[in-house]
Amino acid sequence: MAVFFGARSSLNRFSFLRSNVAFIRSVVAFPNTRLIFYRKSQTDGSLQVYASRKSSNPRIVYLPLDYNEQIKALLGRWAMINEEATKSSINIRRRLNFTCVFLGMDENPGTKDSVFPEEHESRHLARLTFEKHSGIPVLAVDISGNAEFQNLLDKIIDDAEFTSSITDILNLSPIDAAVFSYAKMYLDWLLKNQFCPGCGSSVSPIWAGTKLQCTNEEKEVGKDGESVFKCPVRRTRVNNVCFPRIDPVVIIALRNSKGDKILLGHNARRKQLDKRFFSCFSGFMELGETIRSTVIREVWEETGLKLKNNIKIIKSQPWPFPANLMIGCIGTTEEGSENNITTHLDCELDHLEWFDANYIADIVYGRPTDGRIKLPQKGSIAFELIKMVTDDCISTKL
Predict the structure, then answer these.
(1) Could you give the angle at the alpha carbon of 180 between the alpha carbons of 183 and 207, nearest 5°?
(2) Domains of the chain in sequence order
(3) Is 288 left (phi over 0), alpha (psi -120 to 50) or beta?
(4) What is the DSSP letter of 311?
(5) Which helix (H) or strand (E) holds 47?
(6) Which residues span the membrane (predicted)?
(7) pTM metric for this prediction
(8) Which CA distances in Å does 152 have to 13, 68, 80?
(9) Nearest-5° Cα angle at 47, 44 to 53
(10) Model confidence pLDDT, tens digit, residues 369-387
């Protein structure tokens, strides 16, 4: 079974320890804790990851905490302010000009399924032990607003650079891709959420960067005469704006009722980029929808076609552009409807075409073709769905 980009993680998140300030203190005191770095691109504002260029494919730099005393001191200060922020309403970001997220621990360093499979020296495999748990902690650091951090990295690391190139990102190893996706989605969330939706005050990342807390301490008299926070977000014990949100997206591979053709589309937004690029159909789930009802709606809006009832939900994939959960599905169009396709409903696609399953199979398996179209890159859920539906069409005909 194919491993989709971002879907193979080797970190145990230990989410129940995020609010444990004693544990976070031990993480930043442990010499072998690893740091990965991000910053905002100066051109398009996207988050770039710090990656090594020493091999043919990029490799995320996992910097040991004890590699540089200045960096170690900065992280120690972050841990102190993180602890202080859990008891007060200070804004960590304004104190430090960088943000940090505890990602979890690698419990099996040095093995093939580890974030650090190539490291065999005992000092590089040293694990932090906290209560009954042990592993190598990993922290993600966004240094976009901190010139000191950026200058330090430039001085101490060779053959590494910040990149957000889609080619570089899709060429990360499966484990690096999972770490990249996980960290980027958290840091992107922190970057885009600076103010409380309830009162407009600034928010501060607490619980080692995994929860946002409103800094507004104004209080008023509640309905029972008690003193309560004036901010409606801070007043409630449970709400959905303090933690990261993820957007579910359905992505659908379509075949005809005979099972010998596959429908693919060209996105109108790519008109000037690559006229040969064809892919599956996709769209965000809306409020009150099931996965199945979203598939039916999106296919009709993008193609004008209706589906048979046998919609298959196949696989899911975290997609960090910016923070989506791709839900892979396969659908079959109603018999006799193949020629009723249209791009004039939501106008998201500018060209739709039925392709013979054998032709798509040649592209999927790298056999010679006329080069008329290109498919999504291997490792993406779109490619794997196209491969699945192609294999199914051909095996059905045999």
Answers:
(1) 15
(2) 11-193 (3.90.79), 247-397 (3.90.79.10)
(3) left
(4) -
(5) strand 47-52
(6) none
(7) 0.90
(8) 28, 9, 21
(9) 105
(10) 999 999 998 888 999 999 9
